[in-house]
Amino acid sequence: MNALFRLAPFTSEEASRQWLVHLAETAIAAVHPCNLLPDQLPEKTAGRTLVVGAGKASAAMASALESAWIERASNTGESIDLEGVVVTRYKHGAACQYIEVLEASHPMPDALGEQAAKRMLEAVESLGEDDQVIALISGGGSALMTLPAVGISLKDKQALNKAMLQCGAPISEINLVRRHLSAIKGGRLAAHAHPARVVTYLISDVPGDDPTLIASGPTLPDNSKPLDALEVLERHTIEVPDNVRQHLMGNHDAPQASSSEFARDQTMILARASDALQAARLRAEESTVDVRILGDNLEGEARDLGTAQARMVHKLQGEITRPLLVLSGGETSVTVRGNGRGGRNVEYLLGLFDTLQGAEGIYALAVDTDGIDGSEDNAGAVFGPESWERAKALQLSAKDYLNRNDAYSFFAAINDLVVTGPTRTNVNDFRAILVLPRPA
Predict the structure, then answer these.
(1) Domain 33-271, what architecture?
(2) Is 290 exposed, middle or buried (0-12, 13-18, 19+ CB in 10 A)?
(3) Burial of 215 (0-12, 13-18, 19+ CB in 10 A)
(4) Structural fold of domain 14-30+274-435
(5) Among residues 416, 287, 271, which one has the least CA distance to residue 1?
(6) Residue 363, Cβ neighbours under 10 Å: how many?
(7) What gap in Å lies between CA 184 and CA 166, rounded to an integer?
(8) What is the mean pLDDT of each run of 10 residues along the chain (440 residues)?
(9) Domain locations along the chain
(10) How far apart are CA 433 and CA 236, in angstroms?
């Protein structure tokens, strides 16, 4: 791979596409738990150490933690004394000896996720002041660790979750609603664990990296109010069942940051989208490519962002004299109006593709760093000028596919999908546009 980057092989369509794919692999490796957790182990306590966790990266986090914990015990002669349970998405599991790894549904919560959440609450309730909880939290944890508040059913949460995902609401608002309909999110897991110390390790998938938003903050206090969640639902014209409305209008505040119980707790963000972008920047610069990072927290409608960036890079192409890489991260949204297939990354790319119209010398890739774009089997897609010609030959209209939210089918038809399988990490979307100078 190093030779590939030193040579900067932008002499063909395939070489440029592969350069972008390898760049994404570099970015994802930089934020994988196995490269992050071993150097961040908490000290043992006089009591028990119990591990809990939820998210697309939680199993890999548990495996990395356990391996490092065992190695330290071997080197020091201490006992291992490690136990716990984490829940991750189906097919995102990892092998552990002492920490049980469960799998559940994402993005739609299911009964297995509810059972996993109940087990975590039961496990931490018996802990004392000499014990500690290590919480391994990453994106996806909200759906995977679903335990409805009293008076709210799993069916209620599933319906509201689906409505929020389809209306185009940003993840900050989605998780705000989730926190106030939960018996475990918004710091409630930590409240059950106290007086034990809670050490939380986070892999951030939210724009801005607010720890309380990552998986809806099960171990972190929350200063928002239930009425804030009701306002979000009403603003997006989502039907609110009577029992949900009554709950949100009641006195159900989450644990507050002012609570002295949180004083001993510790929180550390292990990886962010900015870390993935910086790793990609350093690798790209080995190819003597100029790099421009637009930000790691871009939000908004996916196709609109694609359209805007297409216009930007088309203008930049007339100003550059050597290759330019334009990077961005964050989490866009998709307002679902059709019945097609696809996640926000391919929808972003199709907006970009339709605006570029096969512009020579511009290549683009967008992937979800967890390896799954939405609920399909691809991480995202990659395209170049020849992709436009393939689409024309097949008489495919990008606008038609956008109108029915069917970007997956479009890129599948022209053989441009990127399929990685689960990566077992998750810092959200990685977008890269390679712009080559126009011929003189």
Answers:
(1) 3-Layer(aba) Sandwich (3.40)
(2) middle
(3) buried
(4) glycerate kinase, domain 1 (3.40.1480)
(5) 287
(6) 24
(7) 24
(8) 53 93 97 92 93 97 97 93 97 96 95 97 95 97 94 94 89 90 95 96 94 94 91 95 94 77 94 98 93 96 98 96 96 93 97 97 97 94 97 98 97 98 96 91
(9) 14-30+274-435, 33-271
(10) 33
